[in-house]
Amino acid sequence: MGTEVLEITQEGPIAILTMIREDKRNAMNDTLLGALDAFFSNPPEDVRVVVLTGRGGHYCAGLDLAEHVQRDAEGTMMHSRSWHAVMDRIQYGGLPVVSAMTGAVIGGGLELATSTHVRIAEPSCLFQLPEGRRGIFVGGGATVRVGRILGPDRMTEMMLTGRTYGAEDAVRLGLAHYAVGEGEALPLALELAGKISRNAPVSNYLMINAIARIGDMSRADGLFVESLSAALSQTTPDAEEGLRAFLEKRAPSFR
Ligand code: 1HE
To answer: N or C terminus of the chain: which is more exposed, having fewer CB within 10 Å?
Structure first.
């Protein structure tokens, strides 16, 4: 499985997607974006969780700047919208995604990371939004995703100064959830992906869809959608199995 820019392997219910443009620090060109889109548009049926990582010591160095300069305004807008579509598919497509990050998590790389649900950072990680230094602006969803994690004020300062955050800062700020030692991101990602894969699929679906969407709603609307989500999950056969398994002191067996 996979393409020349994205290696795809599978270990049981876990798909491992590795970006392999290492000579370009995994910069995101249209081919790589298309390969991610193709996977998340039509994932194998037996995949429950995805681990996303980059080869060569870097997660993703952002937009491939060599391709960017060739677009006019209309083309750039459409290109930005195509990023939004892919990042939305990753965030809301239904599969939990765990990012194992090293090195550059820069620009579009941070936009990609923040569309994934669990983020693990090694000491080499560099979190940066250097668009101002390149004379451009973010276009892959950062104002919404990074802005909501950091808050607009801190994101503005991050972009204005072009500062770099490391792994520990990233955890403190919410850009990552775990800071681990060198070489430990992928093993932890696989361990967490295993745990996530053993949850009921509908529960996972609601966690990655309902919570983020409720964050965009008023309090009253959010509480209403929470009740609907509870009704949906608690009336499935998996809920019956999950509750019975707990009472019978055994591991649940979900669909
Ligand atoms: C690239 C890219 C790229 C590396 N597009 N080619 N992103 C950036 O502004 C980040 C730009 N990159 C860097 O700051 C550095 O490359 C790194 C910190 C990631 C790595 O440094 P280093 O010293 O290990 O590698 P290098 O020598 O700088 O780069 C190695 C090669 O990768 C080199 O190509 P080569 O042909 O000379 O070997 C670089 O040109 C190439 N490379 N990064 C194209 N990004 C939807 S809007 C999103 C807007 C953005 O993402 S803006 C942020 C873009």
So the answer is: C
Q: Which tokens belong to 56?
A: 């060569």
Task: Name the residue at shortest CA distance from atom 21 of ligand 1.
Answer: 25
Per residue in 86-121, pLDDT tens?
999 999 999 999 999 999 999 999 999 999 999 999
pTM exceeds 0.90, yes or no:
yes
CA angle at residue 42 from 38 to 44, to 5 degrees? 120
Report the alpha-carbon distance of residue 151 to residue 160 in Å, rounded: 14
Compute the half-sphere exposure of residue 168: CA atoms within 13 Å on the CB side of its CA: 1
CA of 130 to the centre of ligand 1 (A): 11
Pocket test for ligand 1, best of 19, 25, 32 (most atoms within 8 A of CB): 25
Look-up of token digits 């870097």: 58
Between the CA of 27 and the centroid of ligand 1 the distance, in Å, is 7
